[in-house]
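Bench notes, bay 3.
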Amino acid sequence: MRRRAANRMEVVCLSLFNMGLDMSERYRLFQNFARGGGFYLQDNVTRKQESLRTQDRPTAERLLNARNEAARQPAINRSIALAYLRAADVKMVTRNWQDVMSAVLEQKHGETLRRWQTAVKDHAFDCIRQRAVIETTAEDLIKLVNKGTVSTNVYMRRLHNFALDMDWLLKSIVPKRQWPKVVHHPGKAIKPEEHQRIIDRELNPERRAFYQLCWHLGGSQTDVACLNAEDVDWKHQTITYSRKKLLGRNADPASIRFGDDVAAVLRSLPDHGPLFPYLRTVRSADRATEFKQRCIGLGITGITLHGYRYAWAQRAADSGYPERWAQQALGHGSKAVHRAYSRKAEAQVPTPEAWLKEIKEEARREAEAKTITVNFGPDAVDKAKTS
């Protein structure tokens, strides 16, 4: 029995050899006499069969050789390319996206490091963590971004650009304009009545002052919680501080003037050192959770601590406050300012005619203010002669 099977195998191998074929090739040729004697190709990997639409053996063998050559050449080219890559960078072939994430984390510090550590834990990245960087396709990244959140999109772009800058990628996997658009969820501003209810309900004096400063300054929760008494200039009534998320970027500090309401709050806080000794030690996520719990207790939904930033930007836009001043007050061309000024604010835009009329009226009032009234009546003339 074994000898018969061996004989059959020899016959099959011999027939393949007579056709000029190699058992290791991707495709093999056979003739189907049940369908008129036409020649067919069979993929040795997928087992899929395809008709060559010919009964001429030389033509069929030429088509077979062309298919095998096409399948063989990419594999050869890939092996050659990997050999060159190994010579240039030993880890080029084995470096995966987890290695890229680790390299990025090594360069971050402080609050930025904490943000990155949270971002790379996103489960959406699990599908590429162990994938070799040079073997990643555009379809892999597009699928990952669509599966994740806005944060996934933002940080995947940064990882991709980091690998590209480090020459760990030969070229961009996804062209810049082909990335899925980053669509931020519209932020909801805290209304004045909601803020007042929160303040009235808050019994902790430090946390109450914290919410009040967030309302008046429009700063992010981390920046306000980390304010120091030395950041307050009482002579010029200004508060100047550097954004925590922008440290090391040579960004201009945020600066804002304050009035009597803010001055009253500042006087209730320490006159030196941290203004909020406890809250500055609390994680931003915990501060946000505490605020959410207070909102739930008051029946207020849909707002977060970041809503104070949106509220300040919208109040500034509605009052006609110049946008460049608003950006300086909030720091670093804030997105909150952009959104408030672009679509969320309710400021009325005058027509060119109305604007020109207002300019002329303002110039007239300024001219009247500078005019000196002179009396040329009879009494004034007699008085001048007498003198």
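Next record in the batch:
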Amino acid sequence: MAGYVRTAMLMAAMTALFMGVGWLLAGGTGVVLAFVVAAAMNLFTWWNSDKMILRMHDAHPALQERALHRMVADLARRADMPVPAVYVIETDQPNAFATGRSPDRAAVAVTRGLLRNLDQDEVAAVVAHELAHIRNHDTLIMTITATFAGAISMLANFALFFGGRRDSPLGIIGVIAMMVLAPLAALLVQMAISRTREYEADRIGAEICGNPMSLAAALNRIQALAGRIDNHSAERNPGTAHMFIINPLHAHGYDSLFSTHPKTENRIAALQALVGTGAASRRSPVPATGRGR
């Protein structure tokens, strides 16, 4: 519950930032314009987010990975949710993400490197983590916040072009400061939301697969390999990095406001704390994925 409250507060802060930049740009008219633009962008994103994200990463339906389909279906039944579509991304970097506006219109995408480098239980744990994101509607939340962040940056650029409101109580210096700080603040809020949801998805994913240590081992293995193997589609689309289970970009892994993901060591420690608490009990094995296929 605390995670949902914090997410709501962070999204309220994002909305306030958006309104503030709109006001600086054109006063009351700017606020109205900001909401109209936000509504249009979010409506488009709501309908097309899954297709856009999958296309960005050249994901294709997992037509040949029948064992993977069985695994996803089994885990979805355990999570009491619809079975999402399954996609594969042809990159050697082990990673995965989920997308879609609702559990009924969702997809899980795993990389070829994930199937080749992780064992059956680890792949199942990663899939369970992504199912947790879908069940929690995180995919929609993260897409909306990303849209807000982009819109705030766009409005800030308009303010730079038009010079902002001359009668603004902040003055021209304040307008310039807002043009610099608003996009940065939006980025911080977006990252904070992503980090909050990752811990919750780890916890629920561990419950779905029944083995927190399999997810901990998967996170550790992915982190080690992702730092050495390029993910070219992610590098071309860095704005989607927060959707992956581990940051696919070759960036610093500090657990700070500037990280799209919590520090992997902290996530592993949280999963280790679940062992023996009864929060996640080991379940029967999931069907094999046919590792390396």
